[in-house]
Design goal:
Largest sheet: 7 strands, mixed
Structural class: alpha+beta
Helix content: 25-40%
Number of helices: 5
Radius of gyration: 16 Å
Order of helices and strands: EEEEHHHHHEEE
Distance between the termini: 27 Å
Length: 157
């Protein structure tokens, strides 16, 4: 569940225009990343303070890292992105924006994409949003701000 205050202070662009956070929800996990025939696709971007984002996704990241490290013991070739974090002795999430921003961006685009949107946006069935975030295609992390960009589908009507 998204905290009521998760989107306060988050910058939102949809279809190249500044938008209210209320106009964007996340697509349900069963349909996340899938096409929506007949629904227009528009770009979106979210900008959030990096410290705040880390606070919101910390439980998800800790679970991801624990499970990925276990899996990497058996299938190391499946986890090339873990090399940098293992070499850095698995620093806590709060240190990653300054120490390993590319690693953090990579996992937010990949295995944590849906989880990151879940922490930031209400689900599509709980919000009357016009647009539904459907992908996370690019993430830029710096110590102050994180920008997430992707594609959203526009609900008909």
């Amino acid at each position: 569940m998204v905290p009521d205050t998760a989107l306060s202070g988050v910058g939102v662009l949809v279809a190249g225009m500044v938008a209210s956070p209320a106009c964007l929800a996340r697509r349900g996990s069963a349909s996340f990343g899938r096409e929506a025939p007949g629904w227009p696709i528009v770009p979106y971007a979210l900008q959030i303070g990096t410290e705040r984002l880390c606070d919101l996704i910390e439980p998800v990241y800790e679970r991801f890292l624990r499970d990925a490290l276990i899996d990497a013991q058996h299938f190391p070739h499946d986890w090339p992105e873990l090399v940098a974090v293992i070499d850095a002795e698995c620093p806590p999430l709060a240190r990653l924006p300054a120490e390993l921003p590319d690693y953090l961006a990579e996992i937010m685009c990949g295995p944590l994409a849906s989880d990151v949107l879940e922490a930031l946006l209400p689900p599509d069935d709980a919000a009357p949003a016009r647009y539904l975030a459907n992908t996370v295609d690019y993430v830029r992390v710096d110590p102050a701000w994180t920008t997430l960009c992707g594609r959203a589908v526009q609900r008909p009507g």
